[in-house]
UniProtKB/TrEMBL annotation:
GO CC terms, sorted: membrane
One term of GO molecular function: NADH dehydrogenase activity
Name of this protein: Assimilatory nitrate reductase (NADH) alpha subunit apoprotein
4Fe-4S Mo/W bis-MGD-type domain ranges (all copies): 8-60
Keywords recorded for this protein, A-Z: 4Fe-4S, Iron, Iron-sulfur, Metal-binding
Biological-process GO terms, alphabetical: respiratory electron transport chain
């Protein structure tokens, strides 16, 4: 129970940021809003610095509370000036009409985000396919989760980040974290790891950086960036060689192992040591521990997945987990640690270029017919799958590309790879509309900026990293002049003559349930009342007839069968390929990017937080002492990093936490310190994930502190 004053109201909701969706109570009334953590299963009373400071932004002086339009319509060199919703929406609708009349339906595009609620993500996908009838929609989760999602779908028939509750991690005897750093990205989750360590569990972290998570682990493997696949194949080679494969499980629950056994035959330990830098004895130690543990968990995250071969890398770790009989075994399994707050739900309900709600596929006739019936449209009128996120952005303003773009909850000018090229493409648009809380780097380029409601001002649902659907509850009214994105989409659809768009979240959620019914991500049995009563509900949760008990939801997947047609998991043989860019004489080092504790994603919100700015005011380039010595760089010197795409400057942090040949920079900033001005947009052929984690870089000292 949270004490509240006589004129205040306390509402239980969840943190606006990452996929842990920590429970918190917000008290609003005749004083600035305050918050306290709640004892929710994922955070158990904890919050990180980001969560503790989330309420600071609700009444931030830079908060947008009026629509902005260009003083001279069509002239983006003219200033953005305050306007009315009527005028702003008039301009958006006029631009949509003019563009589609001149260039066709697909010339209007939509770009969404993993921070949208399930209802908003669903409505955005429907808006694109029904109100605009465009194929051009994708979202920023393509830059985050798409490789793991593709690997899981290929092997297990279903993509749910963790196929088990997070609390299972506490009970595992061995946990292997690959490219995951929860101590910085989601600190309350560390409680679950800590509980395991106190019981004597072995935790292994695979990461080129000695992160806070790696320092706390029993074992840290430090492979060169881009070699995780070779390491996983090497571990499986050792498992085969030492007779550690769970042959009974492989025979009963999987298909395709013979091809994988053959594929890993060439990954003998000393070759893997040469490729990855991980010593042979460490490889053996890890695979033996994993194989002998009663309960063992393998988790991958962005470090393993954001590569040109990200899908195959996640697959290699899945192959290892399957060979050791982990997925579906009580207390064991493979999972991926989702990043964004609604990264999971955001990829289930139709924002993706190739997907319809409930993970239905836009290319599948039966799936099209089901969703078209819910939407009251002809299946033949639904567009075909469109371009993936980077491909959509890279074609902006071109013949055959999008010329009018609507962006919700995404700051691609900072978060996209090769970000300056993306900014140039955004400038090529005929018209750009952005809905956001603040004037982000993307919103600065827009013709129209629409001020949107923040987390504590809106209602809806989010799906956390465990597949648990939770309620985002409205704790206070938005400032006058601010609208929820659900309202925005309903009003735009009405102006475009498309009926059937509600602004009421519960109505939209019920429709989402019908659209997802029978799909793999089935929400049809979930209601707001059930979520309230049960601390969230795990999907799939199909509706049942009135005279039958309600479906309990599914905290643990794959206990009896996998979601493939024959119920068996599929091994997929994969091979190491070199990263798209290799160091050479011009760019002699390896650059990798990632996150820091006190910032979130593109930083649109967290860079404006006073308390977080005290912790992480500017980005720093981490450089190993040996490399720093060779280049004449001291701690706090200003260094310029140059890649084939651009240059950016950072203060140097000389630290032996990074691999001697690797430079690390966080990606939360834009401008002259934009990490993504440097990154490589080479795409994974399956997931279309850019190669954020590896490129070749030159490092030069340009000045003192
Ligand atoms: Fe929890 Fe993530 Fe919010 Fe931190 S950012 S409080 S870990 S939900």
């Amino acid at each position: 129970a949270v004490p509240a004053g006589p004129r205040t109201r306390t509402t239980e909701t969840h943190c606006p940021y990452c996929s842990l969706q920590c429970g918190m109570a917000v008290t609003a009334g005749d004083r600035p809003p305050t918050l306290v953590p709640l004892d929710f299963p994922t955070n158990r009373g904890g919050l990180c610095a980001k969560g503790w400071s989330a309420h600071e932004l609700l009444d931030h002086p830079e908060r947008l509370t009026r629509p902005l339009v260009r003083a001279v319509p069509g002239d983006r060199t003219s200033p953005l000036v305050e306007s009315t919703w009527t005028e702003a929406l008039d301009r958006v609708v006029a631009a949509i009409g003019a563009t589609q009349a001149r260039h066709g339906r697909d010339a209007v595009g939509c770009f969404g985000g993993g921070g949208l609620t399930n209802e908003q993500a669903y409505a955005f996908g429907k808006f694109a396919r029904v109100a605009l009838r465009t194929s051009a929609i994708d979202y920023n989760g393509r830059f985050c989760m798409s490789s793991a999602a593709a690997a899981a779908t290929r092997a297990l028939g279903l993509d749910r980040g963790l196929p088990f509750p997070l609390a299972d991690v506490a009970g595992a005897d061995v946990v292997v974290l690959v490219g995951s750093n929860p101590a910085d990205t989601m600190p309350p989750a560390v409680q679950h790891l800590q509980a395991g360590r106190e019981r004597g569990a072995l935790h292994v972290v695979v990461d080129p950086r000695r992160t806070a998570t790696a320092r706390a682990a029993g074992l840290h493997l430090q492979p060169l960036p881009g070699t995780d696949l070779a390491l996983a194949n090497g571990l499986l080679h050792t498992a085969v060689a030492e007779g550690l494969v769970d042959e009974a499980y492989v025979a009963a629950r999987t298909t395709g192992f013979a091809a994988v056994r053959e594929a890993v035959a060439g990954y003998w330990p000393d070759r893997v040591e040469r490729l990855t830098g991980v010593p042979v004895d460490r490889q053996r130690q890890v695979v033996r521990a994993l194989a002998r543990a009663e309960k063992a968990v393998v988790l991958t995250a962005r470090g393993a997945e954001q590569h040109r071969s990200g899908t195959d890398t996640a697959t290699a770790w899945l192959n290892l987990a399957l060979a050791l009989g982990l997925p579906g075994r009580p207390g064991s399994g493979w999972g991926t640690v989702t990043g964004q707050g609604n990264g999971q739900g955001g990829r289930e309900h139709g924002q993706k270029a190739d997907q319809l709600p409930g993970y239905r596929r836009l290319a599948d006739p039966a799936d099209r017919a089901h969703v078209a019936a819910v939407w009251g449209v002809d299946p033949d009128d639904l567009p075909r799958p469109g371009r993936s996120a980077f491909e959509l952005l890279d074609a902006l303003g071109t013949d055959g590309g999008v010329r009018t773009l609507l962006v919700l909850a995404s700051n691609v000018a900072v978060s996209a790879p090769d970000a300056r090229r993306v900014v140039s493409r955004l400038r090529d648009l005929d018209f750009l509309a952005v809905s956001d809380f603040f004037l982000s780097e993307t919103a600065e380029l827009a013709d129209v900026v629409l001020p949107s409601a923040m987390w504590a001002e809106e209602s809806g649902t989010m799906t956390n990293l465990e597949g648990r659907v939770v309620r985002r509850r409205r704790a206070l009214d938005p400032p006058e002049g601010v609208r929820d994105d659900l309202q925005l989409l309903a009003e735009l659809a009405e102006r475009l003559g498309a009926p059937g768009f509600s602004a009421d979240p519960e109505t939209v959620f019920a429709e989402l349930g019908r659209a997802s019914a029978g799909g793999t991500a089935d929400y049809s049995g979930i209601t707001y009342d059930r979520i309230d009563a049960e601390q969230g509900v795990f999907w799939p949760c199909p509706a049942t007839p009135d005279d039958e008990p309600a479906h309990p939801g599914t905290p643990r997947l794959f206990t009896e069968r996998f979601a493939t047609p024959d119920g068996r998991a599929r091994f997929v043989p994969v091979h190491h390929v070199d990263a798209h860019e290799q160091p050479d004489a011009g760019y002699p080092h390896v650059l990798t990017t990632g996150r820091v504790l006190a910032q979130y994603q593109s930083g649109t919100q967290t860079r404006r937080s006073r308390s977080l700015a005290l912790v992480a005011p500017t980005p720093r380039a981490e450089i190993h002492p040996d490399l720093a010595r060779r280049l004449g760089i001291a701690h706090d010197d200003v260094v310029e990093l140059a890649t084939r795409r651009g240059r950016a400057r950072f203060a140097a942090a000389v630290t032996d936490a990074v691999h001697p040949d690797v430079v690390f920079v966080p990606f939360h900033w834009g401008g002259g310190s934009s990490a993504n001005a440097l990154t490589d947009p080479a795409l994974d052929p399956v997931s279309r994930m850019p190669a954020f984690k590896v490129c070749a870089v030159a490092v030069t000292r340009v000045g003192g502190p």
